[in-house]
Amino acid sequence: QDHFAAKLTIAFEGVEVQRSGTTDWLPLPLGAETAFNVGDTLHTGDHGRAYLEFQTDGQVLILPRSTYQLIEFAYSPNLHPSAKMSGNLVQKLSGTVDAYRLETPRLTITQTSALLAVWDRDGSPASVTSADGTAQTTVGGKEFTVSKGQGLLLKDTPVVVNVPLPLTEPHLEGALDGCPGTIHTNHDQNI
């Protein structure tokens, strides 16, 4: 029986995979499912989206214009993932995590929360939000705790603030700038 770290499913076309130890990028069609292992890298184009499923312990949604590489993975006896990414992702982990590491160009997450979103793309602020649990994030050697309902935004200086749902990077930036990002109209309809 073949063992692999995760199952990769293509949710929207525009996804390529580079297998460990190779230089070629393989485009995958919408709906494709394949194994994803240590050393593999995936890249999503302008509209591409992909899911990684780590057995029953977690899912990662890789959003458009992102790159994700699995560096290390084990069950020892619990989930132990390490990855590098740039772009945007949302992850949900339901099992016990012994060790965790997610590196982006500007920050490193060393402890994940159960429901976490990360944005780190050139030309935009880097951010981490937690919708369930507590995440530990390191920026420039300094540690930050991001608890449920909070976000860390990194423009010039890292700042952790409470964020209203939904926990998105624009809502986080709006919370820091004093703009809620939601306009309340008559008849209780928000836009």
Keywords:
191 residues; mainly beta; 17-stranded mixed sheet; 5% helix; globular
How would you portray this structure in words?
- The structure is a single chain.
- The chain is mainly β.
- The protein has one helix spanning 169-177, and strands spanning 6-12, 15-18, 26-28, 33-36, 41-44, 49-54, 58-62, 67-75, 79-93, 101-103, 108-111, 115-120, 126-132, 135-139, 142-146, 150-154, 158-162.
- A hairpin with a 5-residue loop joins strand 12 (115-120) and strand 13.
- The longest helix is centred in the C-terminal third of the chain and has 9 residues, at 169-177.
- The N and C termini lie far apart (51 Å).
- The model has no long low-confidence stretch (mean pLDDT 83).
For the record, give the distance between the C-alpha atoms at the N and C termini, rounded to a whole number: 51 Å
Strand content: over 45%
Order of helices and strands: EEEEEEEEEEEEEEEEEH
Binned, the helix content reads under 10%
Give a quick account of the main beta sheet: strands, pairing sense, barrel closure: 17 strands, mixed
Low-confidence stretches: none
Shape: globular
Number of helices: 1
The gyration radius over C-alpha positions equals 17 Å
What class, by secondary structure content?
mainly beta
Number of strands: 17
Mean pLDDT: 83
